[in-house]
Design brief:
Blueprint (H helix, E strand, L loop, with lengths): L6 E6 L5 H12 L2 E3 L2 H10 L3 H6 L7 H8 L18 H18 L2 E4 L3 H6 L7 E7 L2 H12 L3 H23 L11 E4 H4 L1 H14 L5
Parallel strand pairs: 1-3, 1-4, 2-3, 4-5
Length: 214
């Protein structure tokens, strides 16, 4: 029998408000919310220091060229190693993927980032999966980063470029797919057009249309 838990995953452009939308959804629907909490749980599961997971969090580093040369993607169902190079990017990702699958099996939840939509879409037991991509116009993202992080426009633009590049490379490295290819998602939403509250409402309506909640 398949897993009937409602699972919502959110990939997001930096500054689009995707994390806020995810938390709002979780609160309003009574779902568990996981963002960087996954790192702590993966650390506890693996006995690998949480700092190693944070250093590699949504970053591919210099490993992307090696991955592209081999034309491989991560084995999300591969068993993580408890000896040898336990802190390699691939091994840390396997621990995170294992934790996400276990959480999805136990409870309805919202996952933000870390290619959760890809990881959980590979699990045929998960039936009620909704994959969201949240984005926004660049001007609005710059404004939000300036406001939230209390930095200048120039620094906000640099931060957006840096984090966007890290997320793009991370997604490519571990999934073999392009992060902003909308075919990887069920519902892409521009928060510039709707706003964050309305975006959460739209996602709830979409979930109802899919028959996953009343």
């Amino acid at each position: 029998m398949g897993n009937k838990n409602l699972i919502i995953t959110i990939e997001r452009e930096y500054g689009s408000g995707g994390r806020i939308v995810g938390r709002k959804l979780a609160e309003e629907l009574g779902l568990h919310f996981y963002d960087d909490e996954i790192l702590k749980l993966a650390s506890e599961k693996s006995a690998v220091g949480e700092e190693f997971f944070r250093l590699a969090d949504e970053k591919a580093g210099n490993n992307l060229l090696h991955r592209l040369a081999g034309a491989k993607k991560a084995d999300v169902f591969g068993k993580p190693s408890l000896k040898g190079d336990v802190t390699s990017p691939d091994n840390l990702f396997k621990f995170q993927a294992m934790v996400m699958r276990e959480l999805a099996e136990q409870e309805p939840c919202v996952f933000v980032g870390r290619a959760a939509g890809y990881v959980l879409d590979q699990d045929e037991e998960i039936e009620n999966l909704v994959r969201i991509f949240v984005y926004a116009d660049r001007v609005r993202r710059v404004q939000r980063v300036m406001e939230v992080d209390c930095i200048s426009e120039e620094r906000a633009k640099k931060r957006i470029r840096k984090i966007e590049n890290e997320r793009k490379n991370y997604y490519k490295y571990f999934t073999g797919n392009d992060w902003k290819n909308m075919k990887n998602y069920d519902l892409p939403i521009n928060t510039t057009r709707l706003g964050l509250d309305e975006t959460a409402e739209l996602i709830k309506e979409y979930v109802k249309l899919r028959g996953y909640m009343k």
